[in-house]
């Protein structure tokens, strides 16, 4: 049960990798547009693929303020969204949440990477601490309750 302050992007990236590796049942992610999380990196996308394919009950939920960079620049993640529709969901948050400036990545409600501001690497890594993760789990649930537009892997049309 430890918590660590992150101050550089390299520490942030390695902490995110550790959180993704620890995920065994649920992953909950809130971010501005996923670009700074770099989930599109081959190693990160592969960890997500393994997580989703290991058990049909595993759940990956993503909420973003702006889904356009995802649609435009994330073919690996888009493929995951198309392949694992039963256990991966993504929403674009409503406009009234645009002022939120943090980033949340939570695994199994007990491991988390919390970036305090989208433009900074300054973050907190929490490993194996349900109590310390609880407020962030609640924050993520509150963000989801606000609704938003479902992001789909395919373009709808005639």
Q: Provide the domain count.
A: 1
Biggest β-sheet description? 8 strands, mixed
* Name of the CATH first level: Alpha Beta
Tell me the Rg in angstroms. Answer: 15 Å
Order of helices and strands: EHEHEHHEEEEHE
**Overall geometry:** globular
Quote the CATH topology.
Endonuclease, Chain A
- The unreliable regions are none
Domain DUF7931: 11-142
Pfam family, one: DUF7931
Protein name: DUF7931 domain-containing protein
InterPro entries: DUF7931 (IPR057691)
How is the secondary structure organized here?
Blueprint: E1 2-6, H1 9-22, E2 26-31, H2 42-54, E3 59-64, H3 68-73, H4 75-83, E4 88-92, E5 103-107, E6 111-115, E7 123-127, H5 130-145, E8 149-150
Parallel strand pairs: 2-3, 3-4
Antiparallel strand pairs: 1-7, 2-5, 4-8, 5-6, 6-7
Explain what you see:
This protein has one domain: Endonuclease, Chain A, CATH 3.30.870. Helices cover 37% and strands 25% of the residues. Strands 1-7-6-5-2-3-4-8 form an eight-stranded mixed sheet, sandwiched between helices. The longest helix has 16 residues. The chain is globular, with a radius of gyration of 15 Å.
